[in-house]
Design brief:
The complex is a heterodimer of chains A (139) and B (170). By secondary structure, chain A is an alpha+beta fold. In chain A, the strands form 2 sheets. A 4-stranded antiparallel sheet of chain A has the order 2-1-7-6, with helices on one face. Chain A has a 3-stranded antiparallel sheet with strand order 3-4-5. Chain A is globular. Chain B has 170 residues and is mainly α. Chain B has a single domain, classed as Arp2/3 complex 21 kDa subunit ARPC3, CATH 1.10.1760. Chain B contains 7 helices and no strands. Chain B is globular and about 50 Å long. The two termini of chain B are 15 Å apart. In chain B, 43% of the residues are buried. The chains are: A alpha+beta (139), B mainly alpha (170). The interface between A and B is medium-sized, with 35 and 30 residues.
Chain lengths: 139, 170
């Protein structure tokens, strides 16, 4: 590989790392309520973090990761059961055909990826990022 | 049909078959590496095809790969099909550009892997109105680099071994 090509690859890697860092820093702020969202992120402080479930660019559920509970949401294909325990959350059951979201296992505030179920069009992501994403795509 | 033309079609069919088999094996037996990055084994065939046969043939092989592999898995025209198509279209464009610019095989492979991820994310964002998926793009970009290096090395090994075939006018 030529020197110029190595430089481009390094630049792309640095860009991706910078993007990740920027996102993580940006998410430490409080969530901004979005009037167009299906469910608003509560104003009160969560015991853990506010986590949003997004379906077709709308927040359909917002839960506190500090409260152990089970939630059921409806996607395009069928139901998804989300279990929250010890400030961690995961997809316990889902009606779809590839189970990638279920296989992703437990997520917490330091988890790198949002849990995504494409057949159901559902994304489980921290509320601040969800609102930023919805806000950006709505512009 | 001349012998050369027949040979050309046979090689094209063989490369398409290899790409389809690798694509199916990867989706069924090899899960995502590091949560969501896939190895992209079928990209090895795309790289080999563009180097030994040309751009037109690479487009045929890639199209056959997406259509037949999703058809065989019972997912034709499903979300998987459109997402795969998005990735393949963008990676094919990147491959054509890199071939025109006479870039090294390794660099071409990395750029194709990145383009494949970007194409898939664009399809999900546009067609499925899931802007949240864009959050994984930087992770996919980072993951695409080692995956691209891996497929690039494999394609290089393959090309060094099939050089005698090239002399035989594929």
């Amino acid at each position: 590989m030529k020197k110029k090509e190595w430089l481009i690859i390094i630049l792309l890697a640095v860009l991706a790392l910078g993007w990740i860092g920027f996102r993580r820093l940006g998410n430490t702020g409080s969530a901004i309520a979005d009037p167009d969202a299906g469910v608003e992120v509560p104003d009160k402080e969560a015991k853990g973090d506010w986590i949003a479930v997004v379906h077709r660019n709308r927040i359909i559920l917002c839960f506190d990761s500090g409260v152990d509970a089970e939630y059921t949401v409806e996607g395009n294909v069928g139901e998804m059961i989300i279990e929250v325990k010890d400030r961690k959350w995961h997809v316990r059951e889902v009606e779809c055909y590839d189970y990638t979201c279920k296989n992703m296992g437990w997520a917490d505030r330091d988890y790198l990826f949002p849990i995504i179920c494409l057949p159901n069009d559902l994304v489980i992501i921290d509320a601040a990022t969800a609102q930023n994403m919805i806000g950006e795509s709505g512009k | 049909m001349s012998i050369d033309k027949t040979r050309h079609f046979v090689y094209l069919a063989l490369l398409s078959a290899m790409a389809i088999v690798l694509s199916i094996i990867e989706s069924i037996y090899i899960g995502p590496v590091f949560y969501m990055c896939r190895l992209g084994l079928a990209n090895i065939i795309a790289l080999v095809t563009v180097k030994i046969m040309g751009v037109k043939e690479m487009i045929i092989v890639n199209t056959m790969r997406v259509v037949i592999s999703t058809l065989m898995r019972g997912m034709i025209f499903s979300s998987t099909f459109w997402i795969s198509l998005g990735g393949v279209v963008l990676s094919s464009i990147a491959l054509i550009l890199m071939d025109k610019l006479k870039s090294s095989l390794m660099f071409t492979s990395i750029i194709c892997a990145i383009a494949h991820s970007v194409g898939q994310v664009i399809v999900v964002c546009l067609f499925y109105m899931q802007a949240g998926v864009a959050a994984i793009l930087p992770y996919l970009l980072l993951g695409s680099i080692p995956m691209g290096i891996l497929t690039g090395i494999t394609a290089q090994l393959v090309l060094s071994r099939i050089r005698p075939l090239k002399k035989n006018k594929i």
